[in-house]
Structure formats: structure tokens, C-alpha cells
Amino acid sequence: MQDEDDFFEEEIEYISKSQMKREMTELQRIGVELTKLKDEQLATIPLDETLLAAIKLAQNTKKREALRRQHQYIGKLMRKVDFEAVVVAYEKLQVGLKQEAQQLHLVENWRDKLLKDQNALKQFIEQFPNVERQPLRQLINAANKEHRDNKPPANFRKLFRFIRETISAHRN
How many domains does the chain have? Predict the structure, then answer.
């Protein structure tokens, strides 16, 4: 009989009211973060139809109090989904977004260096030996000319795309 009492005592897990509130707040916080995502990003996260509809409604809600209530409702719906799967998918998405942002910063830095410093072209070619040199030089010269003549930055953008494609090709 003593063994049965020990068995039942081990199964009961006591959660304080404060701990429950912290967990519910965390669920709501993740739900609010989901409302900031674009549709194609939301598609990568395993959400049921009700929760997805609530998130889309929150994205279109402008009134402050209505948005607060919708966020609470999303938090409530988050209790019913596989929270771990949602968090894992969300974190994976965030890592991808951070890597994408880092790559964009790298491209911007190279573009700025190439436009300002003649030695940067040599460094870029050393780092990315498969780059087509002639189109790169032409884009740099055209972008600098645009800047001097106060013209719209068409070649400036083309240079950015060229650098981005070169770096992407080098990584693959």
C-alpha cells in the first residue's frame, strides 16, 4: 500500500499559479510575434486553421483595445497547439532571417567599399576569384558616374544585385 501512495505522489506535478501565468504570457508573446510575420513565413509554421485565422485577423486589426483582446485570444488558442513544434519552426525561421540580414549587410559593405576605394576591387577579386571582372568594373564606374551626376541609382542597384549573386554563387 505504501508503494501505491509513492506512485501517486510521483505522478502529481504541482505548478504554482505564478508559473502558470508565466507560461500563458509566453504563449501569448509567441502568438504576438507570429502576427508580425508575412503569409509565406506563416506557412512554414505548423498552425491550425483557427489560430491562423486569428493571427490574420490581428494583422488587420488597427484599434488598440481590439488588438489587445485579439492577442489574448491568440494566446488562448496557442494552448491547444503543439507549442514546441511552433517554437522550433519560429526559431528556425528567425535564424534564416538573421542569416539573410547578415548577407545583405555584407553585400552593402562590399558595394560601399567598391564605390569608394580602388583597392577594394582587388580585395573583392581575391576573395571571390570566379567573379566576372569586366562587368563588375563597368557597374562600379557607372554607379560612381550616376552619383556624381545626381541621377537615379539604377546602376547602384545593379551593382548590389551583381555583388549579391557573386557572393551567393561563391557560397554554393
Answer: 2
pLDDT, position 169: 86
SS3 127: helix
Q: Residues 166, 103: one domain?
A: yes
Q: Is residue 86 assigned to a domain?
A: no
Q: Domain span at residue 157?
A: 95-171
Distances (CA, A) of 20 to 12, 66, 73, 152: 15, 24, 17, 56
Express as a percent the part of the chain with pLDDT over 70. Answer: 92
CA–CA distance, 75 with 19 (Å, rounded to integer): 15
Please check whether residues 99 and 151 belong to one and the same domain.
yes
d(CA 122, CA 2): 80
> Does pLDDT of 56 surpass 90?
yes
Q: 539573410: which residue's cell?
A: 100
pLDDT of res. 73: 93
